Amino acid sequence: MQDVLIVGAGPTGLVLALWLTGQGVKVRIIGRSAGPGETSRAMAVQARTLELYRQLDLAEAVVAAGHPVPAINLWARGRHRARIAFRNAGSDLTAYPFVLTYPQDHHERLLIERLASVGVTVERRTELLSFEDEADHVTARLRMPDGTEQRCEARYLAGCDGARSTVRHQLGTGFDGGTYRQVFYVADAEAAPLGDPGEAHVALDRGDLLLVLPYGEGRQCRLIGTVQDERAEHAETLRFEDVSHESMASLGLGVEAVNWFSTYRVHHRVTDHFRQGRAFLLGDAAHVHSPAGGQGMNTGISDAINLAWKLAAAVKGRAPDSLLDSYEVERQGFARTLVDTTDRFFTFATAGGSVADFVRTRLFPSFASVAYEFGSVREFMFRVVSQTMLHYHDSPLSEGRAGTVKGGDRLPWVRSGGSDNHDPLPAIGWQVHLYGTARAELRRWCEQHRLPLRSIAWTPAHREAGFGQDAAYLLRPDSYVALADPEASPAALAQYCDVRGLVLG
């Protein structure tokens, strides 16, 4: 019997398989397609995703293969109106103060190679037909590549199978929301760089939206835009020559070649339940939203990492089944907030009419240019886009406050000397951080429970980041703060574990 059957081999399913395998959990991962997609839309890898990838020794490989975008330029009616530089905004917040462009198909291939290196192969052209929750395991019926059927038993089932999820349909959970009226196109192109090489560009024109994302070597870029007027009714037959080139012309963008082109519609939906019995929904199977801010793929990856350490604890008998309920509590709330936020921005960016055009192309660029001069605004915008602002304050796993850091916060990043406090453990697991001097009784308790204790010399930078001197911070395997205790008391740590039935070491 497998520990976890993963249905869907996109980034969400692949990362789930990697994190589970890294914790000694036996997985089987299947996908209906013959291989990674060739015309992917997802391009952005956010800072929080790269921080989590560090724990798999994957971040540097992804950064090396991708293209760090140092800034986004905002254009309106052919005029350059603002330049938003990420490094200025995020250099004190994360080791990755940029947005990384890395096409999803390239990203998937890297994840597949890494998974194969630890002995797990994606089973291609294999389809989930149905499954039954047998109370203590799941029995799935699969169609194999040769057309035959096979039964697979697993303790848990993870539906990472996209917006048309078979797992979600069988569970019968709702998928409330809707579909935007706009049709989008994406083109993989070669074009002369605009301004400083490597920077991204957003053009806002009358009802027209264009995003230019550089990647790779030389002149490679992705163009993402809206299909205007009656052409949207025949989107499936359109070619690149058929879509509006008004924004491209206003930028002076000379497209020299188009490698591929496709159109798509954007939906905004969140499922009613992320967990039902022994089945879970992740990524697009659980939530879909507009591409604003490059959040979609990153959110699915965060779903996978949030669930992976909880599944590992349950499989190994180190936590009760109730721990798995926190997956829905934590991730559904964020998904709903994300859909609402991206919906508002998307509606603003694509609204038609003279008033909307005036606000979008005249007032907003001027406001953005002025506002971004303020450090607090730059930092806030970076935190939102990079997902480093995400917290789980309302989770049943979050408790306490020390300094300004609360249970549920992402561990604030602090650089000291040649390293930082996000350095990963040799293996994925719980740990305690203390900034200052650890008392002997805390050290003994951590040793007895085989819980890594990192005692880091106190500096003014730690105070600025919000830490309390000599306070203890219990960190979850995904580097969110579970317990913040200003007294650094072993009794507080013990009580935290006892109440939740957790075995940490």
What does this structure look like?
Keywords: FAD, Flavoprotein, Monooxygenase, Oxidoreductase. This is FAD-dependent monooxygenase. The structure is a single chain. With 505 residues, the chain is of the alpha+beta class. Among the domains are: 2-65 and 102-176 and 269-344, FAD/NAD(P)-binding domain, CATH 3.50.50; 399-500, Glutaredoxin (3-Layer(aba) Sandwich). It has helices at residues 11-22, 47-53, 59-65, 86-90, 104-117, 166-171, 246-251, 296-315, 325-350, 354-371, 375-386, 440-448, 460-465, 490-500, and strands at residues 2-7, 27-30, 44-45, 67-69, 71-76, 79-85, 99-101, 127-133, 138-143, 149-159, 175-191, 200-205, 208-214, 220-227, 255-271, 275-276, 279-281, 287-288, 399-402, 405-406, 415-416, 419-420, 431-435, 453-456, 472-475, 481-485. It has an eight-stranded mixed beta sheet with strand order 6-5-12-13-14-11-15-18. The two termini are 26 Å apart.
Instruction: Please report the total strand number as a whole number.
Output: 26
- Mean pLDDT, nearest integer? 89
Number of helices: 14
CATH architecture of the domain at 2-65 and 102-176 and 269-344: 3-Layer(bba) Sandwich
